[in-house]
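Incident log, support desk, overnight shift.

02:14 A customer reports that sequence design results differ from what the structure should imply. Their input is reproduced verbatim below. On-call engineer (initials T.W.) acknowledged and began investigating.
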């Protein structure tokens, strides 16, 4: 560091940051001068907010520039798996309390047409200032979509204000999430971490015995009983041959789980199970059920190709994390069962493992007759074959190979 120049202490004319740093190092005990130096330094480094500067409104800078002070109190509402903030109601409460909108920031999130919007409101008080920010995910028409994403943050400067009254109004916009049958929550990746968007599945009626045979009924009953248990844990593994109704069963199962939040992890997000952001996300969504489709990457034997994903599944289903989070996992796969990590198949962790296969000829004929179809089963049949037995197939002919490829 270069040698400090002389400083005019009366006017605090500091023209070099090194001078400020050197002077602070020498005059640690002079609090009055330190405050003057801090104020001059801050004034030089802070600028009024312009949208081109950043997509995030600088609350701290804004408060300091307007009042010369920092926020003395703060209140925040964060989303969780069991409670959500109604952003529209929260905004109305702020307006009713005298807040005015001073900034809005919109960020494009994904190809589904959702935007993350941040609204910043201000209210000046006799003794200071209050700043409130509400963030929510909205569609292109401005309609709130991800109720679990909405947050509210309130900063306060000064004591002569109605801060407590404002917070009481904001709390009234927090509602308990009422999980509905046929609702499933799609896990998505956003710039701010993982989130969920609720979707309503078509209502599904299913006769388990007719569609899957007598042998599957006790398996289904055990799965349903375990997944509806409060603070449950454990793993369900489902696999199948094509066309045997595994996906249809998953839809039906989701429709029977109205007491818990059901979160669906699509195949392209299987890295979710290895992400450091997984645990904070699941803490906010404890006592929920996680559906993982095409889960080969996170259930394969660790000696073959598995890794952190397998370890996380083990901990979630019967480890320390299972006792903390109470997350249950339903995973589907299509690989050979022998490739599954054997630790996942242990008693105490595994709720059920089932392979959906073609119905035996006798069961297939019973379903055909129940559907009122004039058809005679000549062997085992898949559900796809039974429900589409009268569909005409259009396929090109397969010709014998000629030459070396024969």
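02:41 Re-run completed on a clean worker. Output:
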């Amino acid at each position: 560091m270069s040698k400090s120049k002389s400083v005019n202490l009366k006017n605090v004319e500091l023209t070099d940051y090194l001078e400020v740093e050197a002077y602070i190092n020498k005059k640690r005990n002079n609090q009055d001068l330190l405050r003057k130096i801090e104020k001059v330094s801050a004034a030089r480094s802070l600028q009024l907010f312009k949208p081109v500067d950043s997509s995030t409104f600088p609350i701290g800078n804004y408060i300091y520039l307007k009042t010369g002070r920092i926020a003395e109190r703060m209140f925040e509402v964060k989303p969780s798996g069991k409670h959500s903030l109604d952003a529209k109601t929260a905004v109305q409460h702020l307006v009713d309390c005298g807040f005015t909108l001073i900034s809005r920031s919109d960020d494009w999130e994904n190809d589904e047409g959702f935007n993350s919007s941040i609204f910043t409101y201000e209210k000046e008080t006799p003794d200071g200032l209050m700043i409130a920010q509400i963030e929510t995910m909205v569609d292109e028409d401005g309609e709130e979509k991800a109720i679990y994403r909405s947050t509210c943050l309130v900063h306060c400067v000064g004591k002569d204000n109605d801060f407590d009254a404002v917070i009481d109004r904001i709390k009234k916009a927090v509602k308990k999430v009422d999980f509905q049958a046929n609702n499933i929550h799609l896990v998505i990746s956003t710039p701010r971490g993982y989130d969920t968007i609720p979707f309503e599945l078509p209502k599904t009626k299913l006769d388990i015995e007719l569609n899957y045979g007598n042998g599957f009924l006790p398996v289904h009953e055990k799965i349903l009983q375990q997944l509806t248990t409060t603070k449950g844990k454990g793993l369900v593994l489902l696999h199948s041959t094509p066309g045997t109704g595994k996906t249809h069963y998953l839809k039906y199962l989701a429709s029977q789980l109205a007491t818990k939040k059901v979160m669906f992890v699509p195949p392209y997000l299987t890295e979710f199970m290895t992400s450091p952001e997984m645990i904070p996300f699941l803490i906010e969504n404890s006592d929920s059920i996680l559906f993982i489709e095409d889960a080969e990457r996170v259930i394969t034997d660790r000696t073959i190709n598995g890794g952190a994903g397998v370890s996380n599944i083990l901990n979630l289903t019967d480890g320390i994390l299972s006792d903390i989070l109470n997350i249950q996992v339903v995973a589907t796969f299509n690989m050979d069962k022998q490739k599954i990590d054997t630790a996942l198949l242990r008693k105490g962790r595994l709720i059920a493992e089932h392979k959906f296969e073609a119905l035996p000829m006798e069961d297939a004929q019973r379903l055909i007759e129940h559907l009122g179809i004039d058809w005679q089963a000549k062997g085992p049949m898949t559900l796809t074959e039974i429900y589409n037995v009268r569909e005409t197939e259009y396929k090109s002919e397969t010709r014998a190979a000629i030459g070396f490829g024969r």
